[in-house]
Design goal:
Helices cover about 25% and strands about 25% of the residues. The protein is α+β, with helices and mostly antiparallel strands and about 200 residues long.
Length: about 200
């Protein structure tokens, strides 16, 4: 029953886990049931909930390799399963369940999709990879689905059927120019029309 509940729960957050190829291979060898996270991201790690979605990005080769769903919130582990990258280890682990895992020859070059992602727009187009520094990133939902849909096309081939995701309203986040000074109040507009008619 717990699994059924997990499958129907809407994801709250969409995460990208960044690691080198050796550490991704370790997660794969463990059967994609657990994933290590670094100590400097404790606050982000604490926000990860059951049902959240996870995207894997492998540094060095700069490729997207798969997606998963979180099955258990973080816990502290003393066992060093993953190799150290940089100055910190991997003291936290979350439970995961694989969703779309690509074969090695199917891994997607991130540079091919970077121009379509809102997440990288703060960087110059040629510096898109700088957006993926660090072990854990919170992604916009739209970006996550763009990448996962491309993965499904590769994984399922002709059997793949597109499932439409909610479209983000890009105008929702635009600032109004002129501070709203030129905005006409509908009530005022109606009153003016009534005065003209009299």
């Amino acid at each position: 029953m717990g699994r059924d509940c997990l499958e129907v729960k809407m994801p709250r957050n969409f995460w990208m886990i960044v690691c080198n190829e050796a550490n991704f291979n370790i997660t794969e060898e463990l059967g994609f049931v657990t994933q290590g996270l670094k100590s400097q991201h404790r606050r982000k790690v604490q926000r990860i909930e059951v049902g959240d979605r996870v995207l894997f990005y492998v540094t060095g080769v700069r490729k997207f390799t798969g997606t998963a769903t979180v099955t258990a919130a973080y816990r502290e582990e003393n066992t060093a399963r993953w190799e150290d990258e940089g100055s910190t280890g991997w003291p936290y682990e979350i439970g995961i369940k694989s969703e779309v895992i690509l074969e090695k020859d199917q891994h997607i070059e991130a540079g091919l999709l970077a121009h379509r992602l809102d997440y990288v727009r703060r960087w110059a187009p040629e510096d898109w990879y700088l957006a993926f520094q660090g072990n854990l990133h919170l992604l916009p939902k739209n970006d996550f689905f763009i990448i996962e849909e491309e993965m499904k096309k590769l994984k399922l081939g002709s059997d793949y059927q597109y499932v439409e995701q909610p479209i983000k309203n890009k105008n929702q986040y635009r600032r109004r120019r002129g501070g709203g000074r030129n905005k006409v109040n509908k009530d005022t507009q109606n009153t003016a029309s009534e005065v003209t008619q009299v």
